[in-house]
């Protein structure tokens, strides 16, 4: 006589055996391994892990934004430096032109004065 076991028989047998072991022997150390994991001894819960993962993702996004802002600031500083150098050159040329015009006017006035003095003493 052979008996064929199906899944329900095996599952029922395992459940009843587990129940028997848990009821007959109340050793906490064995219960720890036979029962489903629960409580704080197994670390943070799933929602806490999800919260930490979300915080890490948000931190990464903030770091990316900071990196973008830093690159933008660096580009702006380079543009500012280039434009300030151009403006410095323009101002130097303006000051040079003003100095040259004033020197030319002074030279012309001096030349006119010399010519008038020479003409006055010649006659």
UniProtKB/TrEMBL annotation:
Domain V-SNARE coiled-coil homology: 34-94
Keywords carried by this UniProt record: Coiled coil, Membrane, Transmembrane, Transmembrane helix
Top-level lineage group: Eukaryota
Membrane-crossing segments per the record: 98-119
Bilayer topology term: Single-pass type IV membrane protein
Family per record: Belongs to the synaptobrevin family.
Protein name: V-SNARE coiled-coil homology domain-containing protein
UniProt source species: Chinchilla lanigera
């Amino acid at each position: 006589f052979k008996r064929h076991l199906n899944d329900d028989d095996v599952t029922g047998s395992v459940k009843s055996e587990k129940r028997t072991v848990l009821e007959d022997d109340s050793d906490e150390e064995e219960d720890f391994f036979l029962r489903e994991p629960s409580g704080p001894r197994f670390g943070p819960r799933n929602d806490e892990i999800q919260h930490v993962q979300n915080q890490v993702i948000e931190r990464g996004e903030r770091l990316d934004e900071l990196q973008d802002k830093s690159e933008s600031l660096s580009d702006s500083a380079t543009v500012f430096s280039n434009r300030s150098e151009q403006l410095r050159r323009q101002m130097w040329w303006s000051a040079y032109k003003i100095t040259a015009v004033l020197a030319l006017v002074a030279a012309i006035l001096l030349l006119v004065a010399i010519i008038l003095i020479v003409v006055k003493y010649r006659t």
